[in-house]
Amino acid sequence: MLSKNYKNGLILFSKYAFAPNTLQYCGPKEIESVFENITLGKEELTQDSKRLLLQFTGAVPYLELIAKSNNIRDIFDYRVVEAYWIGNSLLSKVPAKSLYSSIADRFKDRTTLKEWDKIAPKPILGAKPFHAFHVFDIGKKVGLINLGAVKEVLETINNCRIGWGRIKSKKLETAGFSIGSAIVEYYPIILDNYHKLKIGEKTERSYYFADQNINEGDEVSVHWQFICDKINQRERKNLIYWTNYHLDITNSELMHGAGDARIISTD
Fold first, then answer.
1. Which residue among 5, 44, 52, 166 sits deepest, i.e. has the most Cβ atoms within 10 Å of its Cβ?
2. Are 84 and 63 in contact (CB under 8 A)?
3. pTM for this prediction
4. What span, in angstroms and rounded, lies between the C-alpha atoms of 137 and 142?
């Protein structure tokens, strides 16, 4: 029998992986059964669910790194999953050399020497195995901003990173895995007049949601076109902190002119 903490970690991971998988960006195609359980509010995931979630090859190596660095056996332990998607103190214990080795094994052969020279220093600069690190510095190379593709890069960043906001209103309109849509007051990442990425002013955007427990006034996290989960003040604070933390690292590249860059992967 799976422990409660184990199951909750699988559920948490599923909530954040739901959107990119639905859009066919990552993970196996046969995972619908896991997401149906979430949509219906059934918090019962099995060993077979774990097998499917292990096929998210973009995220799993980061989970493995966080777990190993904190002496946690289960990569789907709730604390590990939370660290990757939302951020928490486990990230601080991941050594720079471990993150470097992990990303070198996965991405060095998939980049040009010039591209890798821009990625390689990030662990030394303090990068951690947090989802936003992958989005900002591996998933979509910010060097494209220096080539003039500002609108396209910002759109990808704001879709792919985990954002946060408050539900202003919602309506039910069952369609596929979505049971409704909501207007969310959220904070996009923008490019300021100093050519630096930062969190912008509050704005409104429509998102779908699959969790029937989502209500007006809830603080939520968002990923691509979907609301992932309700978040409390601690989670919101961590998400903001670790997002800003990695924006600072990314901005060091922008300020020095990145040159050529391309997409390595999306999620």
1. 52
2. yes
3. 0.86
4. 7
